[in-house]
Amino acid sequence: MSVSFIRPPRLKPGARVAALSLSSGFVTEVMARYQAGVRQCAKEFGWEVVPTPNALRGPDFLYENPQARADDLHWALENPDVHGLVSIIGGDDSVRVLPHLELETIRRHPKAFLGYSDSTVTLLLLQFLRAGVMAYHGPALLTDLAESGGMNPFVVEGVRRALINDPEPFDLMPAPEWTELHQPWTPELQDTRRSHQPGEGWTWLQGTEPAEGHLIGGCAEVLDMLNGTPGWPDPEVWRGAVMVLETSEDVPPPAQVGYWLRNYAAQGILQGLSGLLLARPRGYTMGQKHDLYTWVKRVLKEAGREDLPVVANMDLGHTSPQLTLPLGGLTRLDPLAGRVTVTA
Protein backbone atom coordinates (compact mmCIF):
# COMPACT_ATOMS: atom_id res chain seq x y z
CA MET A 1 0.00 0.00 0.00
CA SER A 2 1.64 3.21 -1.17
CA VAL A 3 -0.59 5.60 0.80
CA SER A 4 -2.22 5.48 4.22
CA PHE A 5 -5.35 7.09 5.60
CA ILE A 6 -6.52 8.37 8.96
CA ARG A 7 -9.45 6.35 10.32
CA PRO A 8 -11.97 8.85 11.76
CA PRO A 9 -13.60 8.15 15.14
CA ARG A 10 -16.39 5.55 15.14
CA LEU A 11 -20.00 6.70 15.18
CA LYS A 12 -21.13 4.93 18.34
CA PRO A 13 -24.71 5.13 19.66
CA GLY A 14 -25.31 8.64 20.91
CA ALA A 15 -23.28 10.23 18.11
CA ARG A 16 -24.65 13.38 16.51
CA VAL A 17 -24.50 13.04 12.72
CA ALA A 18 -24.91 16.04 10.40
CA ALA A 19 -27.11 15.54 7.33
CA LEU A 20 -25.81 17.48 4.30
CA SER A 21 -27.27 18.45 0.93
CA LEU A 22 -24.03 18.81 -1.00
CA SER A 23 -25.68 18.44 -4.39
CA SER A 24 -29.45 18.39 -4.83
CA GLY A 25 -31.79 20.19 -2.42
CA PHE A 26 -34.59 17.79 -3.37
CA VAL A 27 -35.08 16.76 0.26
CA THR A 28 -37.56 19.59 0.93
CA GLU A 29 -39.98 17.91 -1.49
CA VAL A 30 -39.97 14.66 0.51
CA MET A 31 -39.71 15.74 4.12
CA ALA A 32 -41.68 12.75 5.41
CA ARG A 33 -39.00 10.53 3.85
CA TYR A 34 -36.29 12.62 5.52
CA GLN A 35 -37.95 12.24 8.91
CA ALA A 36 -38.20 8.49 8.35
CA GLY A 37 -34.46 8.37 7.76
CA VAL A 38 -33.83 10.34 10.95
CA ARG A 39 -36.07 7.98 12.95
CA GLN A 40 -34.58 4.82 11.48
CA CYS A 41 -31.00 5.96 12.11
CA ALA A 42 -31.93 6.60 15.75
CA LYS A 43 -33.60 3.20 16.03
CA GLU A 44 -30.90 1.10 14.33
CA PHE A 45 -27.70 2.99 15.21
CA GLY A 46 -28.55 5.30 18.09
CA TRP A 47 -27.55 8.35 16.04
CA GLU A 48 -29.05 11.80 16.42
CA VAL A 49 -29.26 13.10 12.85
CA VAL A 50 -29.37 16.91 12.54
CA PRO A 51 -29.49 19.05 9.39
CA THR A 52 -26.67 21.44 8.55
CA PRO A 53 -27.69 25.13 8.39
CA ASN A 54 -28.43 25.15 4.64
CA ALA A 55 -29.40 21.52 4.02
CA LEU A 56 -33.16 22.15 4.07
CA ARG A 57 -33.27 25.45 2.18
CA GLY A 58 -34.59 23.90 -1.02
CA PRO A 59 -33.32 23.00 -4.49
CA ASP A 60 -33.34 26.51 -5.96
CA PHE A 61 -31.29 28.05 -3.16
CA LEU A 62 -28.73 25.25 -3.10
CA TYR A 63 -28.37 25.24 -6.88
CA GLU A 64 -27.69 28.96 -6.88
CA ASN A 65 -25.35 28.82 -3.88
CA PRO A 66 -22.62 26.17 -4.07
CA GLN A 67 -20.72 28.23 -1.49
CA ALA A 68 -23.53 27.52 1.00
CA ARG A 69 -23.12 23.80 0.41
CA ALA A 70 -19.39 24.05 1.07
CA ASP A 71 -20.10 26.15 4.17
CA ASP A 72 -22.27 23.32 5.49
CA LEU A 73 -19.44 20.83 5.12
CA HIS A 74 -17.00 23.12 6.92
CA TRP A 75 -19.60 23.81 9.66
CA ALA A 76 -20.13 20.10 10.27
CA LEU A 77 -16.39 19.43 10.43
CA GLU A 78 -15.55 22.33 12.73
CA ASN A 79 -18.55 21.89 15.06
CA PRO A 80 -17.35 19.96 18.14
CA ASP A 81 -20.89 18.76 18.81
CA VAL A 82 -21.01 16.93 15.44
CA HIS A 83 -19.30 13.53 15.31
CA GLY A 84 -19.96 12.42 11.73
CA LEU A 85 -21.63 13.29 8.42
CA VAL A 86 -24.15 11.65 6.10
CA SER A 87 -25.26 12.68 2.63
CA ILE A 88 -29.00 13.28 2.34
CA ILE A 89 -29.13 12.48 -1.39
CA GLY A 90 -26.97 12.68 -4.50
CA GLY A 91 -27.54 14.77 -7.61
CA ASP A 92 -25.39 15.89 -10.52
CA ASP A 93 -23.49 19.09 -9.73
CA SER A 94 -21.29 18.59 -6.68
CA VAL A 95 -18.40 19.38 -9.02
CA ARG A 96 -19.50 23.04 -8.75
CA VAL A 97 -18.67 22.99 -5.03
CA LEU A 98 -15.00 22.12 -5.58
CA PRO A 99 -13.62 25.68 -5.74
CA HIS A 100 -15.20 26.47 -2.37
CA LEU A 101 -13.89 23.51 -0.35
CA GLU A 102 -11.02 23.78 2.12
CA LEU A 103 -8.78 20.73 2.22
CA GLU A 104 -7.03 21.84 5.39
CA THR A 105 -10.33 21.96 7.27
CA ILE A 106 -10.84 18.26 6.54
CA ARG A 107 -7.28 17.43 7.54
CA ARG A 108 -7.70 19.25 10.86
CA HIS A 109 -11.09 17.69 11.65
CA PRO A 110 -11.24 14.09 10.43
CA LYS A 111 -14.80 12.80 10.74
CA ALA A 112 -16.60 9.86 9.17
CA PHE A 113 -18.69 10.68 6.11
CA LEU A 114 -21.24 8.29 4.58
CA GLY A 115 -22.67 8.65 1.07
CA TYR A 116 -22.51 7.62 -2.57
CA SER A 117 -23.44 8.76 -6.08
CA ASP A 118 -22.61 12.48 -6.50
CA SER A 119 -20.85 12.48 -3.13
CA THR A 120 -18.00 10.81 -5.02
CA VAL A 121 -16.88 14.28 -6.12
CA THR A 122 -17.00 16.49 -3.09
CA LEU A 123 -16.16 14.03 -0.37
CA LEU A 124 -15.32 10.44 -1.15
CA LEU A 125 -12.60 11.27 -3.66
CA LEU A 126 -11.63 14.90 -3.86
CA GLN A 127 -11.57 15.93 -0.26
CA PHE A 128 -11.45 12.94 2.05
CA LEU A 129 -9.03 10.76 0.11
CA ARG A 130 -6.85 13.66 -0.95
CA ALA A 131 -6.86 14.86 2.65
CA GLY A 132 -5.81 11.41 3.81
CA VAL A 133 -9.01 10.60 5.72
CA MET A 134 -11.01 7.41 5.21
CA ALA A 135 -14.54 7.88 3.86
CA TYR A 136 -17.46 5.50 3.59
CA HIS A 137 -19.19 4.55 0.33
CA GLY A 138 -22.65 3.51 1.38
CA PRO A 139 -26.30 4.45 1.75
CA ALA A 140 -27.60 8.02 1.84
CA LEU A 141 -30.21 9.26 4.27
CA LEU A 142 -33.10 9.29 1.76
CA THR A 143 -32.24 5.94 0.18
CA ASP A 144 -31.42 2.79 2.15
CA LEU A 145 -31.37 4.57 5.53
CA ALA A 146 -34.97 5.67 5.02
CA GLU A 147 -35.99 2.43 3.26
CA SER A 148 -39.75 1.91 3.13
CA GLY A 149 -40.85 -0.65 5.67
CA GLY A 150 -37.65 -0.22 7.67
CA MET A 151 -33.94 -0.59 7.00
CA ASN A 152 -32.86 -3.83 5.37
CA PRO A 153 -30.86 -5.97 7.86
CA PHE A 154 -28.10 -6.23 5.25
CA VAL A 155 -27.71 -2.43 5.32
CA VAL A 156 -27.83 -2.29 9.11
CA GLU A 157 -25.09 -4.90 9.43
CA GLY A 158 -22.94 -3.23 6.78
CA VAL A 159 -23.08 0.19 8.43
CA ARG A 160 -22.40 -1.24 11.85
CA ARG A 161 -19.33 -3.19 10.76
CA ALA A 162 -17.82 -0.31 8.79
CA LEU A 163 -18.72 2.67 10.97
CA ILE A 164 -19.91 1.71 14.45
CA ASN A 165 -18.35 -1.50 15.77
CA ASP A 166 -14.75 -1.56 16.96
CA PRO A 167 -12.49 -1.98 13.89
CA GLU A 168 -11.72 -5.59 12.98
CA PRO A 169 -11.43 -7.52 9.70
CA PHE A 170 -14.72 -8.53 8.09
CA ASP A 171 -15.78 -10.34 4.94
CA LEU A 172 -18.04 -8.65 2.43
CA MET A 173 -20.96 -10.88 1.52
CA PRO A 174 -23.54 -10.90 -1.30
CA ALA A 175 -26.99 -9.67 -0.35
CA PRO A 176 -29.57 -12.47 -0.10
CA GLU A 177 -32.09 -10.27 -1.94
CA TRP A 178 -32.09 -7.06 -3.93
CA THR A 179 -34.33 -4.58 -5.71
CA GLU A 180 -34.23 -1.62 -8.06
CA LEU A 181 -38.01 -1.16 -8.01
CA HIS A 182 -39.05 2.48 -8.03
CA GLN A 183 -41.59 3.26 -5.33
CA PRO A 184 -42.74 6.85 -4.75
CA TRP A 185 -41.42 8.45 -1.58
CA THR A 186 -44.85 9.38 -0.26
CA PRO A 187 -46.02 9.17 3.36
CA GLU A 188 -48.69 6.65 2.33
CA LEU A 189 -46.05 4.17 1.11
CA GLN A 190 -43.37 4.74 3.75
CA ASP A 191 -44.39 1.62 5.67
CA THR A 192 -44.82 -0.52 2.53
CA ARG A 193 -41.82 -2.69 1.81
CA ARG A 194 -40.63 -2.85 -1.80
CA SER A 195 -40.69 -6.24 -3.49
CA HIS A 196 -37.28 -7.89 -3.82
CA GLN A 197 -35.83 -10.73 -5.86
CA PRO A 198 -33.35 -13.37 -4.71
CA GLY A 199 -29.71 -12.36 -4.86
CA GLU A 200 -27.71 -14.17 -7.52
CA GLY A 201 -24.32 -13.78 -5.84
CA TRP A 202 -21.12 -12.31 -7.22
CA THR A 203 -19.42 -13.04 -10.53
CA TRP A 204 -15.63 -13.44 -10.52
CA LEU A 205 -14.66 -12.32 -14.00
CA GLN A 206 -10.95 -13.12 -13.84
CA GLY A 207 -7.92 -13.56 -11.61
CA THR A 208 -6.57 -16.51 -9.66
CA GLU A 209 -4.02 -15.08 -7.23
CA PRO A 210 -4.93 -13.23 -4.00
CA ALA A 211 -4.34 -9.46 -4.03
CA GLU A 212 -4.62 -6.65 -1.52
CA GLY A 213 -4.94 -2.87 -1.72
CA HIS A 214 -6.77 0.17 -0.39
CA LEU A 215 -10.28 0.87 -1.69
CA ILE A 216 -10.88 3.85 -3.94
CA GLY A 217 -13.67 4.72 -6.37
CA GLY A 218 -17.37 5.46 -6.60
CA CYS A 219 -19.95 6.29 -9.24
CA ALA A 220 -18.51 5.93 -12.75
CA GLU A 221 -20.47 8.82 -14.23
CA VAL A 222 -19.38 11.14 -11.43
CA LEU A 223 -15.78 10.02 -11.75
CA ASP A 224 -16.01 11.03 -15.40
CA MET A 225 -17.10 14.54 -14.35
CA LEU A 226 -14.20 14.71 -11.90
CA ASN A 227 -11.60 13.38 -14.33
CA GLY A 228 -9.25 16.15 -15.44
CA THR A 229 -10.23 18.61 -12.71
CA PRO A 230 -7.92 19.68 -9.88
CA GLY A 231 -9.85 17.23 -7.72
CA TRP A 232 -8.74 14.12 -9.63
CA PRO A 233 -6.65 11.94 -7.28
CA ASP A 234 -2.90 12.00 -7.65
CA PRO A 235 -1.27 8.95 -9.31
CA GLU A 236 0.07 7.60 -6.03
CA VAL A 237 -3.46 7.38 -4.60
CA TRP A 238 -4.43 4.95 -7.38
CA ARG A 239 -1.26 2.88 -7.19
CA GLY A 240 -1.88 -0.51 -5.59
CA ALA A 241 -5.58 0.28 -5.05
CA VAL A 242 -8.67 -1.86 -5.34
CA MET A 243 -10.96 0.21 -7.57
CA VAL A 244 -14.69 0.35 -6.82
CA LEU A 245 -17.01 1.23 -9.72
CA GLU A 246 -20.80 1.50 -9.81
CA THR A 247 -23.20 3.01 -12.35
CA SER A 248 -26.27 5.13 -11.75
CA GLU A 249 -29.88 5.25 -12.89
CA ASP A 250 -28.59 6.97 -16.05
CA VAL A 251 -27.83 3.40 -17.23
CA PRO A 252 -24.70 4.11 -19.30
CA PRO A 253 -24.26 1.63 -22.17
CA PRO A 254 -21.68 -1.13 -21.62
CA ALA A 255 -19.49 0.41 -24.32
CA GLN A 256 -19.41 3.71 -22.45
CA VAL A 257 -18.14 1.95 -19.33
CA GLY A 258 -15.49 0.37 -21.54
CA TYR A 259 -14.48 3.80 -22.84
CA TRP A 260 -14.09 5.11 -19.28
CA LEU A 261 -11.90 2.12 -18.44
CA ARG A 262 -9.77 2.82 -21.52
CA ASN A 263 -9.27 6.34 -20.18
CA TYR A 264 -7.99 4.86 -16.92
CA ALA A 265 -5.68 2.60 -18.91
CA ALA A 266 -4.35 5.60 -20.85
CA GLN A 267 -3.53 7.27 -17.53
CA GLY A 268 -1.77 4.13 -16.31
CA ILE A 269 -4.34 3.62 -13.56
CA LEU A 270 -5.50 0.14 -14.58
CA GLN A 271 -1.94 -1.08 -14.88
CA GLY A 272 -1.23 -0.25 -11.23
CA LEU A 273 -4.41 -1.60 -9.61
CA SER A 274 -4.51 -4.56 -7.23
CA GLY A 275 -8.16 -5.41 -7.90
CA LEU A 276 -11.50 -4.21 -9.25
CA LEU A 277 -14.95 -4.37 -7.62
CA LEU A 278 -17.91 -3.81 -9.96
CA ALA A 279 -21.42 -3.09 -8.76
CA ARG A 280 -24.58 -4.72 -10.03
CA PRO A 281 -25.44 -2.32 -12.87
CA ARG A 282 -28.81 -0.68 -12.33
CA GLY A 283 -31.31 -1.01 -15.17
CA TYR A 284 -29.32 -3.53 -17.23
CA THR A 285 -30.80 -6.52 -19.02
CA MET A 286 -28.96 -9.83 -18.85
CA GLY A 287 -27.65 -9.13 -22.34
CA GLN A 288 -26.31 -5.73 -21.34
CA LYS A 289 -24.66 -7.23 -18.27
CA HIS A 290 -22.94 -9.82 -20.48
CA ASP A 291 -21.77 -7.04 -22.81
CA LEU A 292 -20.45 -5.08 -19.84
CA TYR A 293 -18.38 -8.01 -18.63
CA THR A 294 -17.05 -8.53 -22.16
CA TRP A 295 -15.98 -4.89 -22.32
CA VAL A 296 -14.29 -5.01 -18.92
CA LYS A 297 -12.26 -8.09 -19.81
CA ARG A 298 -11.42 -6.64 -23.25
CA VAL A 299 -10.03 -3.40 -21.84
CA LEU A 300 -8.08 -5.19 -19.12
CA LYS A 301 -6.53 -7.44 -21.76
CA GLU A 302 -5.60 -4.35 -23.79
CA ALA A 303 -3.91 -2.96 -20.68
CA GLY A 304 -2.01 -6.19 -20.03
CA ARG A 305 -4.03 -6.91 -16.88
CA GLU A 306 -5.58 -10.30 -17.54
CA ASP A 307 -4.23 -11.21 -14.10
CA LEU A 308 -6.24 -8.56 -12.24
CA PRO A 309 -8.82 -10.03 -9.82
CA VAL A 310 -12.25 -8.67 -10.77
CA VAL A 311 -15.46 -9.22 -8.81
CA ALA A 312 -18.71 -8.17 -10.50
CA ASN A 313 -22.39 -7.95 -9.56
CA MET A 314 -21.62 -6.64 -6.08
CA ASP A 315 -24.24 -4.89 -3.95
CA LEU A 316 -22.98 -1.32 -4.32
CA GLY A 317 -24.47 2.00 -5.24
CA HIS A 318 -27.73 2.34 -7.10
CA THR A 319 -29.45 -0.95 -6.32
CA SER A 320 -30.69 -1.84 -2.85
CA PRO A 321 -29.58 -2.97 -0.33
CA GLN A 322 -25.97 -1.85 -0.56
CA LEU A 323 -22.74 -2.53 1.27
CA THR A 324 -20.82 0.10 3.19
CA LEU A 325 -17.18 0.24 2.08
CA PRO A 326 -14.41 2.10 3.92
CA LEU A 327 -12.63 3.95 1.12
CA GLY A 328 -8.98 3.99 2.04
CA GLY A 329 -9.40 0.73 3.94
CA LEU A 330 -7.12 -2.18 3.09
CA THR A 331 -9.03 -4.99 1.34
CA ARG A 332 -7.98 -8.48 0.24
CA LEU A 333 -9.41 -10.35 -2.75
CA ASP A 334 -9.07 -14.14 -2.87
CA PRO A 335 -10.51 -15.37 -6.19
CA LEU A 336 -10.13 -19.10 -5.54
CA ALA A 337 -11.82 -18.84 -2.14
CA GLY A 338 -14.39 -16.36 -3.47
CA ARG A 339 -13.70 -13.98 -0.57
CA VAL A 340 -13.39 -10.22 -0.29
CA THR A 341 -12.15 -9.17 3.14
CA VAL A 342 -11.74 -5.68 4.57
CA THR A 343 -8.60 -6.22 6.62
CA ALA A 344 -7.81 -2.75 7.97
UniProtKB/TrEMBL annotation:
It comes from Deinococcus antarcticus. Residues 212-332 form the LD-carboxypeptidase C-terminal domain. Its EC number is 3.4.-.-. It holds the Pfam family Peptidase_S66C. CDD domains: Peptidase_S66_mccF_like (cd07062). It comes from the Bacteria. This is S66 peptidase family protein. Belongs to the peptidase S66 family. Residues 17-138 form the LD-carboxypeptidase N-terminal domain. Keywords: Hydrolase. The lineage of its organism: Bacteria, Thermotogati, Deinococcota, Deinococci, Deinococcales.
